[in-house]
Amino acid sequence: MRLFLLTTLTMCAFAANSILNRLAIDSGASDPAGFAVVRVFAGALVLTALVYLRGCRLPLRSRRRILGAGSLSLYMIGFSVAYLTLDAGLGALILFGVVQITMFAVTALTGSAPTGRQLAGAGVALGGLAYVLWPSGAVQVDMVGTVLMAAAGIGWATYSLTGRSEPDALQGTAANFVVALPVTALALLAFGGAWHMDGIGYLLAAVSGGVTSGLGYALWYRVLPQLTPSTAAVVQLSVPVIAIVGGIVLLGEVAGTRLIIGAAVVLVGIALAVLRPKRG
């Protein structure tokens, strides 16, 4: 039960990131690149402070930073730049679809192939997510945005897989944010053009970075060793649904029949993949 609650809290933190991002960018309070840079900076600042308050040091020179910080940068850069040209729903589908494929493929190659039940559950959940997020009307797919979002998915999948072997979740996450900050900032400022953020944009990005990203990612690293890679991949399909529900509750968005049906299918798929049938 404790693992279930911690995993649910982590997924809610991820969904809150999406809501904060939408609030800042859709309102014009921030541009995507600026939001991401401040988000990583705030996460690095908060996590580093917590590490030093514990009397510990940041493991910056660990070889784990190559994959940890590198994949975090890849995710942040790809995600932020891709949404300049991609529809939000289609972007989320590409992101989470690539995360599933990457994590399932890597685990299969490393000797822990997902079961047929897990594959079926992932397929059902992804289908439900596609039903909820697929854009209405004609779909125009920007190839550059698609490639960048796919790269972001590979980055996040790698970040999640790397976290399973991190000896200290807080220290590892803090070091990843610190090392990723200059790489992410330089790349996004090069792509993003003019910096546009007001006070609300800075506030939303700081909350996203320091709380829902920084602490959320540290919690993710905490629970990952207790989840199989396949389970870790599938449960993340709940994030867009939680974000949409959060938008309904917090932003006054409308809940349609499509959302209710799709969300139910996603939950059924996750349950199929995660829950083990009782043996008689």
From TrEMBL:
Pfam families in the cross-refs: EamA
Subcellular location: Membrane
Signal peptide boundaries: 1-15
Superkingdom of this protein's organism: Bacteria
Transmembrane segments: 34-53, 65-86, 92-112, 119-137, 143-162, 174-194, 200-220, 232-251, 257-275
Residues covered by the EamA domain: 145-274
Keywords, in A-Z order: Membrane, Signal, Transmembrane, Transmembrane helix
Record carries keyword Transmembrane helix: yes
Its membrane topology: Multi-pass membrane protein
Protein name per the record: DMT family transporter
Protein's organism: Ruegeria haliotis
